[in-house]
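tokens incoming
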């Protein structure tokens, strides 16, 4: 997969999928293509290149440049091949003397208004204008450059990642169409007419415009007009490696383009099945963190957290770590240590961490950050449908007629899927948004929610129950589906429950704040509008009733028969790149890989034989239990890989106290993150560019991560865990992650058919992949549910104990923003911070006014567990009574305020509901002052190590 750099192949116009094939000849070559295909694309598929400028296969043809003219037998004139669809029996000629002359004349006009600085142009050698001039045989330009031209047009360098140089623009509008069709932002237009026409970002600079820096226009531009700054600085790449984005759960495929060992561009991969050549500002541009000066590249150890760090060899570091862990176990018992695996690491790395805990530590104290995000998804979907994962492909949304987005903000948190969803909505699908906040989808360019149900935080279950109640009592449910696919007794119990008056929209309105009529109308639309697909996020799971909400979603899908085929389904939008994988790989204290209980003797026996080690049958600690046990003195050692619990977990002061009480904290990460400041051993991590492995995205898609450069610290993360395991006495041997995947496949039925060879061949595949589905399973539960019959579960609404009061009258809810990622450790070390340099508190004008708060004021946020200070922004995206912030910056302390309340089934924290008071202040909080002092101390101790 490492190859010399080549621009992505461009077939000229988008593919068509008609079942009807059309046969024609092009330059005498017979070809058959789906009806609706353009002549240009048919030619490209036959290996014939027609010169082109304004056409590209990511957007619909426009037919403006007239370079792609062809001759068609029986047709007058010279039609443009990009806008002419194929027809049965058509005979096309792409080359003739007349065509050559016409094309040369057109090219001559373009070139006469284009700087001829090819030798010094940054994209020299990777320019379609240059190529087209060569293809049409242009040798001279008759018109000269004296006339009116655009050669001195001013550059726009406002965007940190790309430059717009209008002097090179040929006004082909590929960028405008990419922004509209691919990204759905509509930031660009062609202003003016004729000679005066030019590309404009709404009359503003790119930075001041609506642009979200996805880079689709840069990809589409055939000239050097829109060019990545890294290409301007370093020139075009030499070689490329196909890999997978290390940010969100969409799992976009990329070609990492290199010069030597330096990444010069991340090009979204057209064959990436999750992204089809699109990307967002994070994956596309925010890769600078991989070589940031803050990277720690030498292992470090110290006696106490107030000692200076000491840089040591890998051997000394892992020996020291193992000795300390063993000493803890000797003093406090075998269950006094554990580990947290990383949803940012590969499947293979996660596999090794849980194996180390089970065989090297001798217990099940293994958990992962899914605990604090999607653990209710795992639980809820397993109970109802039988498998802890989403049911669809992302592409399935293109067949949805009614789309429900609940507690998710796809255009910010899953941007490439957000763009695909907007495309489907522009095609006419209906949209129901259930969210306390007015997310972008409610009112985006050419996209408007049919219903926005602004649910009061904490009442999701009541909303879903009321939707189900409406569907059942109005007879809109799918009885055939229920009869043939679901457990009848469970359905009867549920039916009796849901029909109760307390679940009606009228009765639940008092909890949800949603007018009964709106809720009824939305329910009718979902039940009767054709294919209904539900997409949900952390606004569903991070509640005291997170698992109940997931089950209520599954109930709704089964009730309407909206599961088990394309265009429908239950779709959790997973947050981090490999959160699905980290769960699949057995990072839970009660489950071995493949979601099989540790208490099951037969399952355990399989692993015991394979691993040559007895396994503990008793479930271990979840993350919150680890903290509790640390504070009560029974849990004393933790190995934390790629997870910043000190910033990401709720009730920061409680987490900090737990971390301080540990006798051995080993942190493996790229940077000295907040958690590492409490550590005794620091093992340098490796970025996704430095290792081989696989990630599994939100659609269960397993994709390869490929090593493109040497690990900066000398070891990839899997090698570090291997070294630690050996130091703990494990007799392991792996030379390459492919061997770990082979072990995963041997021991995990849903991965039985997965191998690196197959992934290389297919590009990616969705589990289950086994004998019954050797190329994977795009849509789950077809024909029957994984658990056999689907199970309706009674979902009684129980209000959270986190209530507003006179002292804490507002509800704080949290979320994410496009430019930053999770705790920000990666994105804060890139130019992305220009868009979001600090976390901001959104507050409705009514709530601000009664407190005398103006836009930009510092405000204190006080909850029952802590307080912090943020800058206020007046916003009508939030409803009165609800305030909102993000948690991307460590000093914001959003999680100082969030509480220990959690989901009843999985302990997933209730981040989305915190009762608070807000007031105007002029100084940081006590916690922020302490945090700053501690940070200064830790930075100084780090400095001493160098
Ligand atoms: S970067 Fe994306 S959002 Fe910005 S103008 Fe280009 S296509 Fe539009
Ligand atoms: S900026 Fe590039 S893509 Fe856009 S009109 Fe100009 S040449 Fe075409
Ligand atoms: S959408 Fe997610 S996976 Fe795709 S480029 Fe953006 S951050 Fe990466
Ligand atoms: S490529 Fe067909 S008209 Fe421009």
């Amino acid at each position: 997969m490492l190859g010399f750099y080549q621009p992505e192949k461009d077939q000229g116009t988008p593919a068509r999928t008609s079942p009807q094939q059309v046969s024609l000849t092009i330059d005498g070559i017979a070809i058959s293509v789906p009806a609706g295909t353009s002549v240009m694309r048919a030619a490209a598929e036959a290996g014939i290149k027609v010169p082109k400028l304004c056409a590209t296969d990511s957007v619909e043809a426009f037919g403006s440049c007239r370079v792609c003219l062809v001759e068609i037998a029986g047709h007058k004139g010279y039609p443009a091949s990009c806008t002419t669809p194929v027809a049965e029996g058509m005979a096309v000629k792409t080359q003739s003397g007349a065509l050559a002359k016409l094309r040369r004349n057109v090219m001559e006009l373009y070139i006469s208004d284009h700087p001829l600085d090819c030798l010094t142009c940054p994209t020299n050698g990777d320019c379609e204008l240059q190529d087209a001039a060569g293809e049409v045989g242009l040798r001279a330009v008759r018109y000269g450059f004296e006339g009116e031209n655009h050669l001195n047009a001013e550059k726009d360098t406002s965007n940190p990642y790309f430059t717009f140089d209008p002097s090179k623009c040929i006004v082909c509008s590929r960028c405008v169409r990419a922004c509209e069709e691919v990204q759905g932002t509509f930031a660009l237009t062609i202003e003016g007419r004729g000679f005066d026409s030019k590309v404009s970002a709404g009359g503003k600079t790119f930075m001041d415009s609506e642009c979200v820096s996805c880079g689709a226009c840069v990809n589409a531009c055939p000239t050097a007009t829109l060019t990545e700054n890294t290409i301007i600085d370093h020139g075009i790449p030499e070689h490329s490696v196909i890999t997978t984005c290390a940010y969100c759960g969409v799992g976009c495929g990329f070609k990492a383009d290199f010069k030597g060992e330096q990444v010069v561009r991340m090009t979204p991969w057209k064959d990436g099945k999750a992204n089809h050549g699109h990307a967002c500002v994070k994956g596309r541009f925010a890769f600078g963190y991989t070589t940031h000066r803050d990277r720690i590249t030498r292992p470090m150890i110290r006696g106490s957290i107030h000692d200076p760090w000491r840089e040591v060899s890998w051997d000394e570091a892992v020996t020291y770590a193992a000795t300390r862990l063993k000493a803890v176990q000797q003093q406090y018992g075998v269950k006094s240590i554990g580990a947290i695996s990383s949803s940012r690491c590969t499947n293979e790395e996660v596999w090794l961490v849980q194996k180390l805990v089970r065989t090297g530590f001798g217990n099940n104290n293994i958990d992962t950050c899914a605990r604090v995000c999607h653990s209710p998804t795992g639980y809820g979907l397993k109970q109802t449908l039988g498998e802890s994962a989403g049911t669809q492909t992302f592409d399935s949304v293109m067949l949805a007629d009614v789309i429900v987005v609940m507690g998710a903000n796809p255009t910010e948190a899953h941007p490439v899927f957000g763009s695909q969803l907007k495309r489907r909505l522009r095609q006419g699908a209906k949209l129901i948004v259930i969210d306390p906040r007015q997310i972008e989808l409610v009112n985006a360019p050419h996209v408007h929610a049919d219903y926005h149900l602004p649910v009061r935080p904490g009442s999701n279950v009541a909303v879903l129950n009321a939707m189900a109640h409406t569907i059942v009592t109005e007879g809109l449910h799918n009885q055939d589906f229920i009869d043939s696919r679901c457990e009848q007794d469970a359905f009867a119990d549920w039916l009796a429950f849901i029909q109760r008056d307390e679940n009606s929209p009228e009765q639940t309105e008092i909890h949800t704040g949603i007018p009964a009529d709106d809720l009824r109308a939305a329910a009718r639309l979902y039940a009767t509008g054709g294919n209904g697909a539900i997409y949900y996020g952390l606004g569903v799971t991070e509640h005291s009733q997170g698992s109940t909400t997931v089950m209520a979603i599954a109930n709704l899908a089964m009730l309407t028969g909206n599961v088990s085929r394309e265009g429908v389904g239950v779709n959790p939008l997973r947050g981090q790149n490999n959160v699905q994988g980290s769960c699949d790989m057995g990072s839970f204290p009660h489950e071995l890989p493949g979601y099989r209980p540790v208490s099951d003797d037969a399952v355990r026996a399989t692993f015991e034989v394979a691993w040559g080690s007895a396994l503990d049958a008793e479930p271990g600690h979840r993350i919150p239990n680890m903290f509790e046990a640390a504070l009560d003195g029974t849990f004393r050692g933790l190995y934390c890989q790629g997870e910043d619990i000190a910033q990401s977990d709720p009730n920061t002061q409680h987490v900090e106290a737990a971390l301080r009480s540990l006798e051995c904290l080993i942190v493996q990460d790229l940077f000295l993150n907040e958690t590492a400041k409490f550590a005794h051993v620091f093992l340098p991590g490796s970025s996704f560019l430095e290792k081989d492995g696989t990630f599994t995205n939100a659609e269960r898609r397993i994709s390869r991560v490929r090593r493109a450069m040497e690990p900066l610290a000398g070891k990839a993360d899997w090698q570090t865990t291997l070294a630690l395991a050996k130091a703990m006495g494990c007799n392991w041997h792996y030379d390459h992650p492919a061997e770990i995947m082979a072990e995963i496949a041997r021991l995990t039925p849903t991965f039985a058919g997965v191998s690196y060879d197959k992934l290389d061949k297919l590009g990616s595949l969705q589990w289950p992949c086994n004998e019954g589905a050797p190329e994977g399973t795009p849509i789950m539960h077809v024909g029957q549910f994984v658990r056999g019959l689907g199970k309706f579960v009674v979902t009684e609404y129980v209000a959270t104990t986190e209530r507003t009061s006179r002292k804490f009258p507002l509800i704080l809810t949290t979320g994410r923003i496009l430019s930053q990622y999770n705790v920000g450790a990666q994105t804060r070390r890139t130019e992305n911070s220009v868009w979001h340099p600090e976390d901001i508190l959104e507050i409705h004008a009514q709530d601000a006014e009664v407190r005398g708060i103006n836009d930009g004021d510092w405000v204190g946020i006080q909850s029952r567990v802590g307080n912090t200070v943020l800058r206020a922004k007046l916003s009508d995206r939030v409803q009165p009574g609800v305030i909102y912030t993000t948690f991307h910056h460590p000093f914001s302390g959003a999680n100082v305020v969030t509480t220990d309340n959690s989901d009843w089934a999985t302990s997933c924290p209730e981040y989305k509901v915190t009762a608070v008071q807000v007031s105007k202040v002029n100084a940081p909080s006590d916690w922020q002052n302490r945090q700053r002092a501690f940070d200064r101390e830790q930075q100084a101790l780090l400095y001493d190590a160098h």
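note: The pocket of FE2/S2 (inorganic) cluster (ligand 4) is lined by residues 52-55, 63-68, 80, 82 (CB under 6 Å).
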